Amino acid sequence: MATTTPTDVIDRSEEIRRIQRKEKWRRRIPLLPALLFTIVVTQIPFLFSLYYSVTEWTIRPARPRTFNGLSNYAELVTNKFFRDALLTSVLMTVSSVLLSLLVGTGLALLLDRKVFGQGFLRTLLITPFLIMPVVASQVWSSQMLSRTFGVVNWLLETVGVDRIEFVSRYPLWSIVLVLVWQWSPFMMLIVLAGLQGQDASVLEAARVDGATSRGIFFQITLPQLRPYLELGLLLGSIYLIQVFDHVEVMTGGRGAANVPYFVYQRSIGGGWSFGQASAFSIVVVVFSIIIATFGLRVLSGLLEGEEAA
């Protein structure tokens, strides 16, 4: 009978590892064209922006591009308009995401029950999320919040309240209102997925034991929804920190200029200072990457939990 020596075991292990590496590369090769395309489309422009951010580059009046180190980044601290735009971005993003999540959770709880026309109601509630941001902003500013023709002012007038020019008087909160209207369906879908993933036997056992609906929600349902709520918060933050269309269409930046709109103003919007605009945009990208990293970790943990179940 042939005996197996330690050397044979090591050689066999090395051969298995080589086969596994070869198999991994064989599966990855078809994805390389897509990866290269993604790198060309996203990373090369980012590297150019990174280069421009350390230069003084103004095209009106036309001046030669010169290296100025980190001066553009230093202006982040001293530029009052950027600080105001940063504060506006924080307020707009935080309030929109939290309110959207709150409204979306309420809608998800309502749709998690068996009601007549449930499929139609879901489709109807998802519709705002499918509307283009520019169209939604135009409809709300001209048809819903307008002082002269707005539906909201008509409703206020019927109860004796004077008409209000919402967009001019409350520009930031008018934009937040539209963002909540558009993004609540997105949050609803995420939370609804969590609700429908609950173990029905656990809920039934809790009811048999005499637990109230309130107790079941706060002690069983809400803890199970936590990963989904975190995912909604993080994904909403990633997208809403980059809001531009609503600011441009509804206010033109007056009273509600966030960081993306500020970058636009400093570049092709009339400032023509592409070095400073690139530095400001790099900061936004860094914050977005940080938020996206947390979002991917939450999503990874959520998927691992479902696989374990």
Would you kindly provide a written description of the structure presented here, covering whatever features stand out?
With 309 residues, this protein is an all-alpha fold. 75% of the residues lie in helices and 1% in strands. The longest helix has 35 residues, at 274-308. The radius of gyration is 26 Å and the shape is flat. The model has no long low-confidence stretch (mean pLDDT 82).
List the helices and strands and how they pair.
Layout: H1 6-28, H2 32-52, E1 55-56, E2 66-67, H3 71-78, H4 80-111, H5 118-130, H6 133-144, H7 151-158, H8 166-169, H9 171-196, H10 200-208, H11 213-240, H12 245-250, H13 259-266, H14 274-308
Antiparallel strand pairs: 1-2
Helix pairs in contact: 2-14, 3-14, 4-9, 4-11, 5-9, 6-9, 9-11, 11-14, 13-14
Brief digest:
The chain has 309 residues and is mainly alpha-helical. The chain has helices at 6-28, 32-52, 71-78, 80-111, 118-130, 133-144, 151-158, 166-169, 171-196, 200-208, 213-240, 245-250, 259-266, 274-308; strands spanning 55-56, 66-67. 75% of the residues lie in helices and 1% in strands.
Oligomer: single chain
Quote the average pLDDT: 82
How many runs of DSSP E, i.e. beta strands?
Answer: 2
Query: Could you describe the largest sheet, including whether it forms a barrel?
Result: 2 strands, antiparallel
Q: How widely separated are the two ends?
A: 46 Å
- Contiguous low-pLDDT stretches (5 residues minimum) are none
The level-1 CATH class: Mainly Alpha
Give the count of helical stretches: 14
CATH topology, by name, is: MetI-like fold
